[in-house]
Amino acid sequence: MKKIALVKYAKRKENITKVLDLITHDIQLYNKKNILIKVNLPGFKEIYSNTNVEAVEAIIEYLKKFPSIEKITIAEGSEGYYYTKNTEEIFKRFKYNTLERFNVNLLNLDAMEHNISVPITLLDGSRDSVRVVKPEYDYMISLVSPKTHDFLIVALTMANMIGFIHPKDKIKIYGIKYEDGTKRSLYSMPKYLKAIRVAHKNLTEVVARINPDLSIIDGQYGMEGKGPLKGSPVFHGFAIASTDFVKADALGAFVMGFKPDDIGYIHYAKKRNLGSTDFRAVIGERIDYVKFPYRAHPHYENQKKWRERRDVR
Predict the structure, then answer these.
(1) CA 71 – CA 25 distance, rounded (Å)
(2) Are residues 157 and 118 in contact, defined by beta-carbon separation less than 8 angstroms?
(3) How far apart are CA 245 and CA 212, in angstroms?
(4) Radius of gyration of the chain from its Cα atoms, rounded to whole angstroms
């Protein structure tokens, strides 16, 4: 049984350090050489949408304890359906260039060859595929801040895998092609209801093929309401870590005030045995001490309609 840790301290770095120490026996790094930290930087202006660089620093300092590690890469693919700003510009704006003093590399996933094909479903029920890149690494860490989402209800460490998709294919997660419009074009009913049904399944297809060895949720600040970009900040002051990414996201959703099985991609990932949603044996802080209900996205009542008949509990 993979452990899951939950802590709540006053400072971000303290949270990250403490939560990793609690599951250090699960984090098998002693023979690893090439570590990839997948951050989440979807916005050019929205501070609370993006992985905070201080959390990355805390992880790098933790990794420096392992003498076998020769290379640490910070990776993201920000381009796609949000902004015209590219990943390098977002790295610079949020001071990721300062991490180079640790002798780490910044990797723009959007600039790489996306040579893995993952099957997905479009709004009309037809089958298609997205192009995915999988860089070379021995161990991958997914590091995110918790936020509500306009289609997925919440965006946590599994949703972070969208960054590995080709910029022009990211929109396909929601059932349409790049040339057919933006996410905003999906907000009208009944198109929105179709989009949320395919989005959870399509994300699960990607996660089944590329997923983290270690998931970390930096909950110093979260985002509620109109996430993942236009929401309001929540000072929450917690961190979660697990080598089971499904369990990490399940606990993350729960401390945000949502039922894990009401999140489609968590439901499907569990169904496909990609991980567990049983976080009752959490170590560290009491869950009830950390739990704080986030204000859901305005479309929440419709977001919960992702289930089809065969998806009932």
Answers:
(1) 21
(2) no
(3) 7
(4) 18
CA distances 35 to 69, 129, 222, 307, Å, are 7, 28, 26, 37
Lookup: tokens for 308: 């089809």
Average of per-residue pLDDT across 4-29: 97
Q: Which amino acid is at 75?
A: A
The conformational region for residue 283 under phi > 0 = left, psi -120 to 50 = alpha, else beta, is beta
Judge contact between 2 and 233, C-beta under 8 A: no
Distances (CA, A) of 59 to 8, 104, 166, 194: 17, 12, 27, 39
268-308 pLDDT, tens digit per residue, is 999 999 999 999 999 999 999 999 999 999 999 999 999 97
- Residue 64 CB-half CA count within 13 A: 10
Q: What stretch of H or E contains 14?
A: helix 12-22
Helix pair angle (264-271, 245-255), 10° resolution: 150
Residues 6+ apart with CB under 8 A from 284: 5, 6, 7, 18, 19, 22
| 74 DSSP 8-state letter | E
- Do residues 233 and 223 lie in contact, with contact meaning Cβ atoms separated by under 8 Å? yes
pLDDT in tens, 20-40: 999 999 999 999 999 999 999
Domains of the chain: 4-311 (3.40.50.11440)
Structure tokens given for 11: 């400072």
Partners of 105 in the β-ladder: 73
Gap between the Cα atoms of 235 and 72, Å rounded: 29
| Omega before 146 within 30 of 0, i.e. cis | no
Given CA atoms 266, 271, 272, 278 in this order, what sign does their dihedral have?
positive
Contact 237, 9 (CB under 8 A): yes
pLDDT of residue 184: 85
What is the model's pTM? 0.97
Q: Where does residue 56 rank: exposed (0-12), middle (13-18), buried (19+ CB within 10 A)?
A: buried
Looking at the predicted structure, is the pLDDT value of residue 310 above 90?
A: no
Helix axes 53-63, 12-22, angle to 10 degrees: 40
